[in-house]
Amino acid sequence: MKKKNWHLIPGQPITEMDKKIMWWESKGKLVPHRELIKTPEQIEGIRRAGVVNTGVLDEVAKNIHAGMSTLEIDEICMDYCKAHNATPACLNYEGFPKSVCTSINEVVCHGIPKAEDVLEEGDIINVDFTTIVDGYYADASRMFIIGKTSPEKEQLVRVAKECLEIGAEAAKPYGFVGDIGNAIEKHAKKYHYGVVRDLCGHGVGLEFHEAPDVEHYGKKGTGMLLVPGMVFTIEPMINMGTWRVFIDADDPYGWEVISEDEKPSAQWEHTFLMTENGVEILSY
């Protein structure tokens, strides 16, 4: 007999949510474990972390410019965290040496801040930050265009943001994770862009990475059932060329991911709370 994910609480009445989840599980669909449904208290904690996380990226937005190094971006993020009694989740996470990911042009994600990486006119850069406040996590990233760039890069950055927004619109209560990826992939394909498959969004809140995996491609009606109270990221990585990627062999930490054809890549990420009416943004 297949092991069930959803279990009723002994002595508690069966709710409408219980009924809906058990019905989908009876149809063979993957449903979340109960611990993935955040309590009101946990949601408020994640919301507080989200406010600080958004503040970090706002601070970067105020200061980012041509001629600054990505190490300076790391310092801005660290200073903001210290001033707001927060901790950067990336720092020392599985050997990652800095507080923030700074991914320029063809670097898809996990770019490591360095003094020698100086932003130039025309660069596009993703700044990805995760904040811990009182043990709760929030995660988001933004793209920044440095000065004036090419129309091709401008379009890539815009479409990547549209992919995030379209994915969020597709995320419905008692829909499925696959609905998100399907909507994103369809939009990216209109521009002949590649949707990275090796990395994905994820549950977040009590840990840095939780279930479910939120892939940015796929079929509707597949993946885990989305239930009110779940918290997760959507963070499509959209490549100007192929979706394939590789790890930079010159990165001693083994973190930096680069597009296989070394064409530019763009990514936007929000942390979302699923509600009875759709998603609410907790960090952006």
Look at the structure and give the mean pLDDT.
97
Uncertain stretches of 5 or more adjacent residues: none
Distance between the termini: 42 Å
Radius of gyration: 19 Å
Assess the beta-strand content as a share of residues.
Answer: 15-25%
Order of helices and strands: HHHEEEEEHHEEEEEEEEEE
Largest sheet: 4 strands, antiparallel
Oligomer: single chain
Overall outline: globular
* Helix vs. strand class: alpha+beta
Strands, helices and their partners?
Elements lengths: L15 H11 L13 H24 L6 H14 L3 E2 L12 E4 L2 E3 L14 E10 L2 E10 L5 H20 L6 H13 L4 E2 L5 E3 L6 E5 L16 E4 L2 E3 L5 E3 L9 E3 L5 E3 L2 E6 L2 E6 L1
Antiparallel strand pairs: 1-4, 2-4, 3-12, 4-5, 6-10, 7-8, 9-14, 10-13, 11-12, 14-15
Summarize the structure.
The chain contains 5 helices and 15 strands. It is an alpha+beta fold and 284 residues long.
Question: Could you explain the architecture of this structure?
Answer:
The chain is of the alpha+beta class. The chain has helices at residues 16-26, 40-63, 70-83, 151-170, 177-189; strands spanning 87-88, 101-104, 107-109, 124-133, 136-145, 194-195, 201-203, 210-214, 231-234, 237-239, 245-247, 257-259, 265-267, 270-275, 278-283. Strands 1, 2, 4 and 5 form a four-stranded antiparallel β-sheet that branches. Strands 3-12-11 form a three-stranded antiparallel β-sheet, with no helix packed on it. It has a three-stranded antiparallel β-sheet with strand order 6-10-13, with helices on one face. A hairpin with a 2-residue loop joins strand 4 (124-133) and strand 5 (136-145). The protein starts with 15 loop residues before the first helix and ends with a strand. The model has no long low-confidence stretch (mean pLDDT 97).
